[in-house]
Amino acid sequence: MRSEFLNFIKDREYLYQCTNLDGLDKLMSNSSVVAYIGFDCTAPSLHIGSLIQIMMLRHLQKFGHKTIILLGGGTTKIGDPTGKDKAREILDENTISSNTSGIKKTLEKFISLEDAILVNNADWLNNLKYIDFLRDVGIHFSINRMLNFDSVKTRLEREQSLSFLEFNYMLLQAYDFVELSRNYECRLQIGGSDQWGNIVNGIELGSKLNLPELFGLTTPLIMTNAGKKMGKTAEGKTIWLDSKMCSPYDYWQYFRNIEDNNLGRFLRLFTELSLDEIKELEFLKDQEINEAKKILATEATKICHGEDAAKDAEKAAIANFENKDSSLLPNVYIEKQKIGDAGISVVELLYITDLVGSKGAVKRLIAGDGFRINDEIITNSNQLVALKDFDASGFIKLSIGKKRHVKVTLL
Q1: Do the annotations mark residue 232 as ligand-binding?
Q2: Model confidence at 55, in pLDDT bands (50, 70, 90)?
Q3: Residue 381 backbone phi and psi in degrees, to 5
Q4: pLDDT(228) > 90
Q5: Is residue 169 part of an annotated ligand binding site?
Q6: Is 14 annotated as a binding residue?
Q7: What is the 3-state secondary structure (H, E, C) of 384-395?
């Protein structure tokens, strides 16, 4: 290809599908292209499942293309049904607004917001006249075809409810692309491969409304060996990109503990090491592969949390795992009154420290000998932890599985 950007993302394994690769190559090799990626505002931070898209924004900027970040203040009120077994929780305006601010803070760690166009689709979707919208946009959508999109078909095949509200989502996302094309000369939408149908809808709508040719490009979904989307630890803990929701240490550990067969791909996708450096690392075996994973973890953490946090996380991990020194582990603080005179159950302790997603998950962890306190396996989910169990410095060490460790410190 002639486009430096497209060659780059192909070599780094970002490129999965494109609606017209030859046409996009010609366009991107001759001029700067305006491209957009959208994020719904369902949480106060993005998580690692959005990291490929964020890295795409980062690379678009480096190659001189103009980026539009669309925050879905409007579409969040509906919720994308793609890949969901049930409708998302309906969020109120204040929560959506707060989440929008949090996502902006997350994004500015990775890209220059000054060099991007930030838009919120609530600005146009909130003011739509519904009848006019159906007449101007809805007329171009075939119900027969919409029923065959995976996001719809999967729900219907499982006999799970799909509300009319959610059914409208694909119309609104298509309309977003048209709106950005008209107002910002946006020609390219990028998303995960599960967004292919929604992206194609926007391109076809643009064609029917006689806009310049629009293009769609998707990135691969990263799946674990168990067939689950990338984004959570084995214990069900979401890997958020906000350090208050997921510490740099836990972020570092996530990449350190990836499956061996993902090493080369993750180095290409989530670090900025050269391809030559990556080739030297991805074919290492046995103990050497663990050293390559440390490099991956440090380089990925550096991009998200900064060089100092990445080095501190690496030092803490090496101190704990290799030197048996717990002093540098990340701290989780708990008030003494929550322990109380009678003590607190190990299930409640692990749950209130937010280290595992649910009490059920804690019990399963204990049943599988996956939880330790001060390196001793806990086998009884009714066991109590009392104030006397904390050492003179006021902390105990909790271990979740073999690779996740924290200090719980009394306040």
Answers
A1: yes
A2: very high
A3: -70, -10
A4: no
A5: yes
A6: no
A7: EECHHHCCCCCE
